[in-house]
C-alpha cells in the first residue's frame, strides 16, 4: 500500500518544506520510488529550495461565463442566483461580469432561460511536473496571483492525481499552513500526518487548533507524529508541547535549531546531502523511520 | 488608515511586526485597533498578552451546504455531472455530498429533476473582540477547522474593527494577514491603504514576497518592505532589496529575545524596550510614522 504522508502543522514557517524535501531525499536515496507534491499552492517553496528540472507544465482551468448580449433578455436570474455576486445588471441593461469574484460554479449558465451564457475558461493555477533524480518525482501546485480560490486548486491537485499515487510507494505532501479545507483535502487521503511545530507560544497555539481538525473528523486510524523543530531555542513552551503530546499519547521527534538550514537553502541542496552527520540529519532520519 | 502586514511565506514575522507596530502606535502615537486576519491560525491576541476583557464574540453561520434526500433520489447523477467542485461522490449507486467541498452554489439543485436537494447552513467560524493585556483592542477572525469562506470571515472582522475605530474616533486599523496570497489575504488587502511586506532572507520568502506584490498591484495598495532576521544572511538581504524594488522601511535582526518576549506573552517593545532589536524596531516605526502615516 502507498504511504501518503502529509507534512503539516498549523503555523507557517515552522519547517514543513525543510522536512518534506529532506525526508523525500533520504527515501529516494534508498532506491524507493517517491513523489513529492508541493501543495502549498499560495506559496510553493519546494522549487525555491532545491533545483528541480521541470518537464511539463499544465494549466488548471475552471469555468468562466461568456455572455452573449444578443441572446440576453435581461431577466436578471443569473444575477439573483450567482452565489458570489459576480454578475451585475447595469441600469443601461448591460450584464457586467467580475472575474475576481467568480467561483466558477456554473449556476449562471444553468439558470439562464435563453442560453445567453456560454462556457469560457480561466486559468486559476499551474501544475508543474519535474524530477529531482531517478527516484524522485515532483509535482508543484501554484496559484496564479490575484486568484482567491486556493482551496479548490488544492482539491484538484490531489483529486486529479489520485490515480498516479498507486505508482509510488511513498507520497510526501508539503501542505499549506493553517487548518482549513485545503488541508482537509490532503489529510483525508493521508496515511501519516507529520505535524511540524516550533517551541513558541504561537507554535503551541496553532498546533492545538490543527489537532482539533484530526478530532473533528475522527482520523484516529492515521498515524500522527509531532516534530518539534528548532528545538533548543530559549523558550518556556517546551512543557506545554510535552503536555499536548503526552495527553494525546503522540509520538514525537525533536530537531535542533541550526543555522546551517538556511545555508543549505541558499545553496539549493537538501540538508542531509551536505550535512549527513549532524543531529538535525539524525532527527530527519527518525521521521523517515516513522513514515516507513 | 488601514495598514496590512503580510508576507506570502509563513513564519517570516508578520505577527511579530504587527503586534509590535500595534503596541507602538497605541502607546506612543495614538490609540488604534488591530485585526487578526489569519483565521486558520490566529495568534495576534496571544502575542499582545492575551485577553484582558472580552468585548464580544459571535458565531458566523454563513456556509451554505447541499444535502441529498436519498429517499427521493432517482440516481440520475445529473448533480454529479454538474458539480464543479468534486463535492458529490457516488457510493452504492447513490450520490452524496462531501460537505467540506460543497460551496453551496446551488448548481445541483437546478439540474435535479426530482428536486431532492435541500440546503442547510454550517458555522463558518467566529469573530471576537478583546482588549489585550498590552492595551490594544484586537478583533479576531477564527475559522472553524476544516472550514472555508475565510475571506468572508476576514471581511467581517475588518468591518467590526472599522466600527470600533469609527465609534472611538481612532484613525488607524492594523491588519495581521494570513500566510499566502489566497482568499483571506485578498480580503485583507482589499480596501487597505498600506501594505507592509515582511520578508526574511531566504529564497522561499523572496518568492512569496514577489507573488504577494503581484497581488498588491491588482489592488493598487502601496507596498513597503521590512526585512526581518536580516543578520541570518546579510548578502541575501541586499539581493532581496535590489530585486523587489519596494521602499524598505528597515532591517530587523534575529535575536533569541524575540522568542523570549513571545514566551512571556508580551510584545518585544513592552518586554525589553532597551534591547538592540527593540531600538531597531522603534526607529523603523518612527520612520514609518514620520514619512508614511503623517
Please describe what this structure looks like.
The complex is a heterodimer of chains A (about 290) and B (about 290). The longest helix of chain A is centred in the last third of the chain and has 16 residues, at about 200-215. Chain A starts with a strand and ends with a helix. Chain A has helices at about 15-30, 45-50, 75-80, 105-110, 150-160, 160-165, 180-185, 200-215, 240-250, 260-265, 270-275, 280-290; strands at about 5-10, 35-40, 55-65, 85-90, 95, 115-130, 135-145, 170-175, 190-195, 225-230, 250-255. The model of chain A has no long low-confidence stretch (mean pLDDT about 95). The relative contact order of chain A is 0.21. Chain A is built from twelve helices and eleven strands. Chain B has helices spanning about 15-30, 45, 80, 105-110, 150-165, 185-190, 205-220, 235-245, 255-265, 270, 275-294; strands spanning about 1-5, 35, 50-60, 65-70, 90, 95, 115-120, 125-130, 135-145, 175, 195-200, 220-230, 250. In chain B, helix 5 packs parallel to helix 6 (about 185-190). The termini of chain B are close together. At the A-B interface, helix 2, helix 4, helix 5, helix 7 and helix 8 of A face helix 4, helix 6, helix 7 and helix 9 of B.
Q: Can you summarize this structure?
A:
By secondary structure, chain A is α/β, with parallel strands linked by helices.
User: Largest sheet of chain B, if any?
Assistant: 9 strands, mixed
CATH C-level class of the largest domain in chain A is: Alpha Beta
Summing up helix and strand content along with how strands pair, one would put the structural category of chain B as alpha/beta
Domain module tally of chain B? 2
Number of DSSP strands of chain A? 11
Question: What low-confidence regions of chain B span 5 or more consecutive residues with pLDDT below 50?
Answer: none
Number of strands of chain B: 13
Give average pLDDT of chain B, whole number.
96
Helix amount of chain B: 25-40%
User: Termini separation of chain B (Å)?
Assistant: 10 Å
Multimeric organization: heterodimer
How far apart are the termini of chain A? 11 Å
Can you count the helices of chain B? 11
- Sketch the topology of chain B as an H/E string, one letter per element: EHEHEEHEEHEEEHEHEHEHEHHH
Amino acid at each position: 500500500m502507498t504511504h501518503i504522508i502529509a507534512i503539516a502543522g498549523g503555523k507557517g514557517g515552522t519547517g514543513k518544506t525543510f522536512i518534506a524535501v529532506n525526508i523525500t531525499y533520504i527515501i529516494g536515496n534508498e532506491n524507493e520510488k517517491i513523489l513529492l507534491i508541493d501543495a502549498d499552492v499560495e506559496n510553493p517553496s519546494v522549487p525555491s529550495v532545491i533545483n528541480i528540472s521541470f518537464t511539463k507544465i499544465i494549466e488548471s482551468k475552471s469555468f468562466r461565463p461568456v455572455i452573449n448580449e444578443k441572446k440576453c433578455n435581461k431577466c436578471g436570474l443569473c444575477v439573483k442566483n450567482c452565489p458570489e455576486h459576480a454578475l451585475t445588471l447595469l441600469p443601461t441593461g448591460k450584464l457586467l461580469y467580475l472575474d475576481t469574484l467568480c467561483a466558477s460554479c456554473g449556476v449562471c449558465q444553468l439558470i439562464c432561460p435563453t442560453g445567453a451564457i456560454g462556457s469560457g475558461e480561466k486559468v486559476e493555477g499551474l501544475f508543474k511536473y519535474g524530477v529531482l533524480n531517478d527516484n524522485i518525482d515532483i509535482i508543484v501546485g501554484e496559484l496564479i496571483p490575484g486568484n482567491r480560490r486556493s482551496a479548490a486548486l488544492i482539491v484538484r491537485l490531489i483529486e486529479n492525481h489520485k490515480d498516479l499515487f498507486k505508482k509510488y510507494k511513498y507520497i510526501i505532501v508539503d501542505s499549506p499552513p493553517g487548518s482549513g479545507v485545503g488541508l482537509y483535502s490532503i489529510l483525508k487521503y493521508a496515511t501519516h500526518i507529520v505535524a511540524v511545530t516550533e517551541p513558541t507560544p504561537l507554535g503551541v497555539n496553532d498546533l492545538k487548533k490543527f489537532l482539533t481538525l484530526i478530532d473533528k473528523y475522527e482520523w484516529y486510524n492515521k498515524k500522527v507524529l509531532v516534530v518539534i523543530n528548532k528545538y533548543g531555542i530559549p523558550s518556556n513552551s517546551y512543557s506545554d508541547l510535552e503536555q499536548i503530546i503526552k495527553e494525546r499519547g503522540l509520538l514525537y521527534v525533536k530537531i535542533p535549531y541550526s543555522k546551517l538550514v538556511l545555508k543549505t537553502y541558499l545553496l539549493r541542496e537538501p540538508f542531509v546531502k551536505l550535512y549527513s552527520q549532524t543531529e538535525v540529519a539524525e532527527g530527519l532520519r527518525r521521521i523517515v523511520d516513522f513514515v516507513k | 488608515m488601514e495598514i496590512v502586514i503580510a508576507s506570502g511565506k509563513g513564519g517570516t514575522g508578520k505577527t511579530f511586526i504587527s503586534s509590535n507596530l500595534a503596541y507602538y502606535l497605541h502607546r506612543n502615537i495614538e490609540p488604534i485597533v488591530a485585526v487578526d486576519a489569519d483565521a486558520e491560525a490566529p495568534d495576534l491576541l496571544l502575542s499582545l498578552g492575551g485577553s484582558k476583557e472580552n468585548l464580544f464574540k459571535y458565531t458566523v453561520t454563513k456556509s451554505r451546504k447541499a444535502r441529498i434526500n436519498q429517499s427521493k433520489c432517482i440516481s440520475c447523477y445529473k448533480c454529479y455531472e454538474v458539480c464543479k467542485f468534486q463535492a458529490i461522490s457516488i457510493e452504492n449507486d447513490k450520490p452524496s455530498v462531501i460537505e467540506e467541498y460543497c460551496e453551496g452554489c446551488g448548481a445541483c439543485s437546478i439540474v435535479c429533476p426530482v428536486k431532492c436537494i435541500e440546503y442547510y447552513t454550517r458555522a463558518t467560524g467566529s469573530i471576537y473582540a478583546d482588549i489585550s493585556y498590552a492595551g490594544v483592542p484586537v478583533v479576531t477572525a477564527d475559522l472553524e477547522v476544516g472550514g472555508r469562506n475565510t475571506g468572508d470571515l476576514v471581511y467581517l472582522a475588518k468591518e467590526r474593527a472599522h466600527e470600533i475605530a469609527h465609534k472611538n474616533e481612532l484613525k488607524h486599523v492594523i491588519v495581521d494577514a494570513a500566510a499566502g496570497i489566497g482568499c483571506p489575504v485578498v480580503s485583507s488587502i482589499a480596501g487597505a491603504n498600506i501594505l507592509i511586506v515582511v520578508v526574511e532572507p531566504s529564497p522561499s520568502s523572496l518568492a512569496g514576497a514577489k507573488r504577494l506584490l503581484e497581488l498588491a498591484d491588482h489592488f493598487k495598495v502601496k507596498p513597503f518592505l521590512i526585512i526581518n532576521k536580516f543578520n541570518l544572511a546579510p548578502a541575501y538581504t541586499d539581493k532581496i532589496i535590489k530585486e523587489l524594488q519596494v521602499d524598505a522601511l528597515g532591517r530587523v535582526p534575529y535575536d533569541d529575545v524575540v522568542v523570549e518576549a513571545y514566551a512571556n506573552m508580551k510584545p518585544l517593545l513592552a518586554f525589553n524596550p532597551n534591547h538592540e532589536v527593540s531600538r531597531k524596531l522603534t526607529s523603523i516605526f518612527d520612520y514609518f510614522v514620520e514619512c508614511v502615516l503623517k
